[in-house]
């Protein structure tokens, strides 16, 4: 038996089939303009696979599992504020689970990836902004208002947040602003390359990026005391990233005479497939918890 998994994104919906702990039959379609079109596209995908035991979905927004509603707002407005769980279960005649995309990415790591075997985990995902998930005793800790893991809202410097300061995208935007070119002209990877080639402004912005990332992770470590912090997002694949971050966090520890343990900050295992795999992890976890 297999699980059909979907990842709802603002521009594309990715999908795949999970069986024997492997993701196969991967594909994607452009995110439809309406809910009716979304359902039809999903039906078309599911109809190509046999022996499906359930549908696992990663979605943007604040997923309230108890109410079976996706609250908040996202780039896909039509998925919010109605019982989306029951509607999809009627449509497919199968169990359906839905979880927030950042939580899914974290679950991929704690069930199958870099945090497997750990119970107390912080997962941080760095894209345009910062998102994440908190796991306590092996389960998602969403908090009283379902905002657990919203690390991007942490204030780091002069009223600016982790999301506004601590990503490679923001680093690239700062570089563009300082070099008087439109934002998007130079992307994060090129800023890293220019820094390595001796560009002084690029070197300054790369150093700021590392410092801000380390500050955010240091704060998460000592606020939550996880066994491990897993960092995801495209920048997590950059060579040397974790050596730089861990060195800066070690300096922060030394300045404060913190010697009881060394924070463990590691890269994620799953990149582009994290949400799909995590949606499956959520499906299996919900089945075990119920």
From TrEMBL:
<dbReference type="InterPro" id="IPR000600">
    <property type="entry name" value="ROK"/>
</dbReference>
<dbReference type="InterPro" id="IPR043129">
    <property type="entry name" value="ATPase_NBD"/>
</dbReference>
<comment type="similarity">
    <text>Belongs to the ROK (NagC/XylR) family.</text>
</comment>
<protein>
    <submittedName>
        <fullName>ROK family protein</fullName>
    </submittedName>
</protein>
<dbReference type="Pfam" id="PF00480">
    <property type="entry name" value="ROK"/>
</dbReference>
């Amino acid at each position: 038996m297999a699980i059909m998994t979907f990842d709802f994104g603002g521009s594309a919906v990715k999908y795949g089939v999970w069986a024997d702990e492997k993701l196969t039959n991967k594909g994607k379609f452009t995110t439809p303009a309406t809910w009716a079109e979304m359902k039809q596209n999903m039906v078309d995908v599911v109809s190509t696979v046999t022996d499906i035991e359930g549908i696992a979905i990663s979605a943007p927004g604040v997923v309230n599992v108890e109410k079976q509603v996706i609250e908040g707002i996202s780039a896909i407005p039509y998925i919010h504020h109605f019982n989306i769980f029951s509607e999809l279960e009627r449509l497919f005649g199968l169990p359906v689970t839905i979880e927030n995309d950042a939580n899914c990415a974290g679950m991929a790591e704690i069930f199958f990836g870099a945090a497997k075997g750990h119970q107390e985990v912080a997962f941080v995902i760095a894209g345009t902004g910062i998102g994440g998930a908190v796991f306590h005793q092996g389960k998602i800790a969403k908090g009283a208002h379902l905002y657990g893991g919203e690390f991007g809202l942490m204030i780091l410097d002069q009223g600016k947040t982790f999301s506004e300061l601590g990503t490679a995208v923001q680093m690239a935007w700062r570089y563009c602003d300082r070099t008087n070119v439109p934002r998007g002209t130079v992307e994060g990877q090129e800023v890293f390359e220019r820094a390595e080639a001796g560009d002084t402004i690029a070197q300054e912005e790369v150093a700021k990026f590392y410092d801000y990332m380390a500050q955010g992770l240091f704060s998460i470590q000592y606020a939550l005391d996880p066994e491990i912090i897993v960092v995801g997002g495209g920048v997590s694949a950059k060579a040397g990233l974790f050596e730089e971050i861990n060195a800066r966090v070690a300096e922060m520890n030394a300045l404060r005479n913190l010697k009881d343990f060394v924070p463990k900050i590691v890269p994620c295992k799953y990149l582009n497939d994290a949400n799909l795999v995590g949606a499956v992890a959520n499906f299996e976890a919900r089945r075990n918890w119920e």
